[in-house]
Every structure is written in C-alpha cells, then in structure tokens.
Amino acid sequence: MKPVKVGICGLGTVGGGTFNVLQRNASSIAARAGRPIIIEQVGTRRDNPNCDTGNTRVSRDIFEVAHNPDIDILVETIGGYDIAKELILTAIEQGKHVVTANKALIAEHGNEIFQAAREKNVIVAYEAAVAGGIPIIKCLREGLSANKINWLAGIINGTGNYILTEMGDHNRPFEDVLKEAQALGYAEADPTFDVEGIDACHKLTIMASIAFGIPLQFNKAYTEGISKITPSDIQYAASLGFRIKHLGVARQSQKGIELRVHPTLIPSDRPLANINGVMNSVVVQGDAVGQTMYSGPGAGAEPTASSVIADIIDIARTIEAPDSAVNALGFSADSLSNDLPVLPITETECSFYLRIHADDHPGVMNAVTQVLSSHGINIDAITQKVTREDDGCADIVILTHRIIEITMDKAISELEALADIKSPITRIRVETMA
Ligand SMILES: NC(=O)C1=CN([C@@H]2O[C@H](COP(=O)(O)OP(=O)(O)OC[C@H]3O[C@@H](n4cnc5c(N)ncnc54)[C@H](O)[C@@H]3O)[C@@H](O)[C@H]2O)C=CC1
Ligand SMILES: N[C@@H](CC=O)C(=O)O
Ligand code: NA
C-alpha cells in the first residue's frame, strides 16, 4: 500500500509527542492504518530536545509544509489563531487533509474551516482539541450517534483541574500550581485561557455542536474561570459534602441550549467529583444509552499525541475515498440546526453556594435570610464560619434550592447593598446530576 505522508507544523509539546509516538509505534500504526505513515517534513521555529528528527526534513517556514506536494496530511500543532488559520486554509487549498489540536481555532473559526474543507473534499480532524487523550469526539460523533443527547457535563481543562486538586488536597497556592502545570506542558500559551475558563469553553462549544447538531457558537456560551476560588471555598464545600470542580455543561431543552462553563459544587460521592489532577472526564446523557462517562488525561505530550495520531490513522484508512469519511460535526452540513437558541445564563436554573463575608453581630443572618426569602429563594443549608481575617467578620455559607439565575442576580445585588456585608458575595453553582 502507498504510504501516507504527514507534515507536522509546530514541534512543541503536542507536535513533539506526535513525532515521537509516530516513530515509536510505526509498525502497529501502519498495521492499523493499512499503510505506512511517514513523517515527510517538520515545520518548526525551533528544535525540540525531546525529538530526534535525524533524517527528517525540518523547515523553519511552516508554509513550506503546506505547499509541499508530497504531503497528504498536515498536522497543525502551532496553536493560536491567525497564522494557524492561514496555515490550515492553505493546506486545504492545496488539497491536503488536516489534523489539528487547536480548540481555540476550531471553536471560533471551525464553521469557516469546515466549509473550506467540504469545498475541497478534504478532512479536518480535531480529536486532540477536546479533552486531550480521551476519544470524546469519536464517542459523541460515532459511538453515540443513535442517541438524542440530552446533556453532557465534563471536567475539560487539565490545568484547571490540576490547580483545584493541588489547592484542595495540599493547600498549595494558586500561582505555584499554575507554574507547575505550565512546566508540565499542560497550560495554554496564554494560561488565562485555562484559569478563566476560555479553553474549557472552546471545548464545550465543540462538544455541544456534535452532540446537538448545531453550528459552533463560542460567543454565546457563558464562561467563568477558577481564579476567584479560594482555599476557604474548597474547605467550606468539603464540610458540606461537596468538591469544587470546573465544569462545562451543555443541555438541550425545549427552551433552547444551555452552554456554560464555571466552577461547580458536586456532591463528593459522584464520579465527576473524584476526577483529579490533569485528568478530564465527560459524562454524556443519551436517550437510548442513558449515562456514559469517559475519563483520561486531558493534557500533556503523549496523551494528546494519542488523539492526533488516531485522527491521522482514520484519514489514512479513507484517504482514497475522503467523501466516505464522517462529517466534521457528525451531521451533514445542511442539517445543522439554527432553531434552538443558546440561552443566556440569566435564563438557566441551578442550586447555588453563596459565601457572604459579613459583620459578625446579631441580626445579620436574619437579614440575609429575609432577602433570600423575599425573592422566593429556598435555603437548603446555612452555616456561619469563623474566618481568620481579623476584621470582626465571619463567612455565612449558604446552599440554596434551584432558582433561576436572574432571580439570584437580584438577590445578590440586594444583599451586597446591605451595610453589614463587606465584600462581593461569592456564588458557585451546584450540580448534582453527574
Ligand atoms: N499542551 C497540551 O497538553 C495540549 C495542547 N493542545 C493544543 O495544541 C496546540 C499546541 O500546543 P502545545 O504543543 O502545548 O504548544 P507549544 O508551545 O508547546 O508548541 C507550539 C510549537 O509551535 C511552534 N510555533 C508556533 N508558531 C510557529 C510558527 N509561526 N512557525 C513555526 N513554528 C511555530 C512553537 O515554536 C512551539 O514549538 C495548541 O493549539 C493547544 O491548544 C491541545 C491539547 C492538549
Ligand atoms: N491547556 C489545556 C490543554 C489541553 O487541552 C488543558 O489544560 O486542558
Ligand atoms: Na480527545
């Protein structure tokens, strides 16, 4: 069988891992693909000390790879937007298939990239873009394709989960753990993407499109990161029987689609609450199958390479008949639905954890509960915690029943206006379904 020739652009964490695993497992990969997979060229600004490129052609100009007529599949692992998009569109224009790990680009420009690929009858594959090594794209798009997906929820940022786990289990400061996650190759080039929830939102956008058959709509999703979570919140949550995880939730209802990424209290006996460190996990609820759960490393060189190479093998298998390959989002392009609106966060409903830093004197608790009850917010648990801050204040910690977000917004504004309440109120949503 004619070999398939690959060009890898970007030889950093993911590109380097892909290079090494393709070399190491060349014979079993060839057996699975039905033909040898050869690394024809690497395009990279700088060498990767973990990769022995030996006789492989290395170019400093990645566009040489996109124009190399011998290359069948271009692997984009440079990251970022503008150059990566131009590189991918050039490769498509040149009739090459593309494999990318770039969730930011797919979530924000995927509709355009998939359209360009359709016009040239080439494949754009992106398994590595969501949840690193977990084959979640394949699960949603193929394994679960019989189902109407009702919802999915997942821990989909390895860096964020690593930080929350280390802060909670070892009481380590946020900044230290972030630095470690960067050194381990987990974090994005701009780590605010990890800690402010943008990276998770990219991944949620992609999963929701496949799950519900809707166009990619990153700009309509709600995004909140972990940067405001304190060790006290983690401890208070634990004392109430919860763990705090950064969760992406996509849910389909008759009103529309919820797309939201935020820190979340999960009962500590639930499987998702026990996904720790760089591990990711996604729970999917389908009408036929019920709940299924997929877990594995969400970041890192070789776990991510595992997904990149699975895509390369898939393409190699159908390279002579690319139109027989599965559609990019698993739905034919003309059947994607624009009918269901993405709901604003104000229209979603959740239970809430509130931490209220307030003057520690009689009547405060009463004032707080009165405001909540005047908005019809039912309290599930309320407790006062002594804080170590020497400001005469205490933390009042509350768990509420489910309430529509806009009502909670109003109640919080009213509470924050009370003279006894000292700082912005912390609100964390609570989910019990997964
Ligand atoms: N690190 C991880 O665990 C994961 C990363 N990803 C995605 O994979 C992509 C790559 O991420 P990493 O490998 O972590 O980044 P990285 O920073 O380790 O590697 C990127 C490499 O591309 C090179 N590069 C960038 N622009 C270039 C240009 N114009 N010309 C030549 N070389 C260029 C850089 O020099 C660097 O060696 C990103 O889109 C990221 O979001 C996806 C899943 C997991
Ligand atoms: N920065 C990302 C890398 C994988 O997608 C993460 O930490 O999950
Ligand atoms: Na994946």
TrEMBL record:
CDD domains per UniProt: ACT_HSDH-Hom
GO molecular function: homoserine dehydrogenase activity; NADP binding
UniProt binding sites for L-homoserine: E188
EC supergroup of this enzyme: oxidoreductase
Reaction it catalyzes: L-homoserine + NAD(+) = L-aspartate 4-semialdehyde + NADH + H(+)
GO biological process terms, semicolon-separated: methionine biosynthetic process; threonine biosynthetic process
Pfam family, one: Homoserine_dh
Residue ranges of every copy of the ACT domain listed in the record: 353-429
Domain of life of the native organism: Bacteria
E.C. number(s) listed in UniProt: 1.1.1.3
Record key words, sorted: Amino-acid biosynthesis, Methionine biosynthesis, NADP, Oxidoreductase, Threonine biosynthesis
Catalytic residues identified in the record: K203 (proton donor)
InterPro entries according to UniProt: ACT-like_dom_sf, ACT_dom, Asp/hSer_DH_NAD-bd, HDH, HDH_cat, HDH_CS, NAD(P)-bd_dom_sf
Protein residues bound to NADP(+): C9, G10, L11, G12, T13, V14, G15, G16
Pathway: Amino-acid biosynthesis; L-methionine biosynthesis via de novo pathway; L-homoserine from L-aspartate: step 3/3; Amino-acid biosynthesis; L-threonine biosynthesis; L-threonine from L-aspartate: step 3/5
UniProt-annotated binding residues for NADPH: K103
Family: Belongs to the homoserine dehydrogenase family.
Protein name per the record: Homoserine dehydrogenase
Native organism: Endozoicomonas elysicola
Highest classification ranks of the organism: Bacteria, Pseudomonadati, Pseudomonadota, Gammaproteobacteria, Oceanospirillales
